[in-house]
From TrEMBL:
PROSITE patterns, per database record: RHODANESE_3 (PS50206)
GO molecular function, one term: thiosulfate-cyanide sulfurtransferase activity
TM region positions: none
All copies of domain Rhodanese, residue ranges: 24-112
Protein name: Rhodanese-like domain-containing protein
Signal peptide: none
Listed InterPro entries: Rhodanese-like_dom, Rhodanese-like_dom_sf
Amino acid sequence: MKTEQVGDATFETWTPEEVFDACRKGEIVVIDVRTPQEYMFEHVEGALLMPMPFFKPEMLPGQTEKRIVLHCGSGVRSEKMARLAMERGLNRIAHMEGGFGAWKEKKLPYIGTDMASGAPKRVEP
């Protein structure tokens, strides 16, 4: 994990593997900032959705028990929203480097769509 101090805030960049491990241990809340369509097609299992156009840092859950890690398709939108959250007063926020594209590159499991039925299905590459 890379850490950057921005004023009084800590900005973290996590790898997909770090996010996966922390998810399995129940240590983080993953928030997807992609569009609802992107999320419905495929997403990190257990990730919550807060699309970028509707992103409100003040609506994020507290981080007393679990840390927040944002993600998007490539890491660009999640970094932008994480920096916005810091501007709005969050003193610690993280995003996933490379986004969902990097997650899939690392062959980590996710929820996809069964093209025959349109139903969600777990994908284990």
